[in-house]
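Entry for the shared binder. Reason: the reviewer on the internal report wants the predicted structure included alongside the sequence.
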Amino acid sequence: MLRKLLSLGIAMLAAALTACSDGTGGSEVSPGNGAQGTLIFNPPLRVVTITAADLTAQLSATPTGQQLLQIAGTPTCGIDVHYIQYGTIDGSTAGGVSPGLTTASGALMVPTGPAPACSGPRPMLLYAHGTAVDRTTNLANVPNNTEGTLIAAMFAAQGFIVIAPNYAGYDSSPLQYHPFLNGDQQSQEMIDALRAGRTALGKIPASSTTEAPGLLFLTGYSQGGYVAMAAAKAMQAQQGADPSLTVTALAAMSGPYALEAFGDMVVFGGVNLGATAFLPMLATSYQHQFGNIYNSPNDTSNVFEPHYTALGPVDAILPSNTPFSTLVSTGRLPQLGVFSSTAPTGTCNDPFFAANTPFTGGTPQQNALFALGFTPNAGDPSVNLIVNTLRRDVVCDAFLHPDGAFPTPTAGVPLAAAPAHPVRQATKHNDMRTWHPTPGPTPEPVLLCGGGNDPTVFFPTNTGTMAGTGASGSTPPNHAGTFWDAEATAGLVRVLDVDTAVLTAPNSPDGFDPLRVGFAAAKTATAQAAIAAGATDGGAAAVTQAYHGTLVPPFCSKATQGFFAQILISISFPYP
């Protein structure tokens, strides 16, 4: 089973890295002043060092490690991982004030070794991680952080310098909340992390590994896919003043790009898996950004049910040092129940709410997922998280000021012209339909990768809204009517749905068929393992639970690796 395979393979890699960690970083320490984009300690602490040979030997020792090598590729380079801390901004801009300063941390991963692709000028890769509910998240802690370990093997071991911020509100950051899907803050923090990491390169032990001018790649998964896209937008706006921010290519994976449409779908009742964690973080973030999501900073009763607010501030829960399962078991958050299974009445459209509580706008399989978000029900007796009045008001605003992508798509899938509800104003402001990749003398090619049946970040609503469905079987890519129709038709934007059949005539292979085949095998293996463990649903629930967090990431990461490699090879730049 690939899920188990990846977990064991990454665990082996973690063991290898732990064994080779030396915890050094030089004796000279130059404390920074915490200003935006500055490195707080230079040189940063080196927390891991391992050679390519040792890494390969450790992973080759077992069949599971060998399979992981087949996915990421045999390491060409060793890796030095450094822990960086830098100054950045918070997301508090309510009332038009300027954001305040804070600090955050992250990982700087530097390839090492004698191979030509491992030293000298190397391409820079800026990576944005997926949503984390654990406040201690630290991508530099590769013995324990799965995502950090994966990108180390996938990119740093293949010759990319990697900078991966942990984000404000995590690890050593003093910020008491996380600016979740705040495109203004998160894009600027990516730039701040990039500048801090660049500052460190000259003083680390592997100082002979330098950044190759003009080769800056952006990527990220889930929330990080959105953050990477927001960073590309911000860098495009700033590259005139700072040419070092010119992006070579962007690969955004499984991200919530069309936030207004996605938010509308969730509030209509298309509740995504994980919404009971995402929604408190989103409400808190946008309260700090705009100041009008709650009745007042101390009164969140217009958003969250009194059952939860009576236990303490809901908006201060996540990210947390307390495991999410404990928050659920102690009644601080519900497991799945976002909305009440009692439809609101006295609304702008009572028949709609009566017919869509729970939501019925998807396939039978999707509707079964959506139903889990309404409580109480047979499987979830908990109290719903979000008050009915909020759902009522947002849906009615969407009827009056419709988004062009949901529920009825229109040509070009435009944003709502003038949404009146604060929640929809916030999602509109942070929606990525305010940006187009730039064609011209220095185009920035884009890859959008994901899984078409993702239960957490809906692929059709997000990737499909931006640039269509991509190629599937014998069906040509369908970009007509999407926001990036022109860019996708011109080949500037490519779309990969790993959960489709292999390409057949009349389409020519796009090079991603092995990933489609591998993903199908991974789903099958996950289902079979669940059946062997006693599942009576054919393994469907196991596949749904593993889909976004376990099944898709390695395949889209591999697609990203190949996409970036093609660009490097096309300019005759040394690549393994």
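Summary line for the report: DSSP finds 18 helices and 13 strands in the chain.
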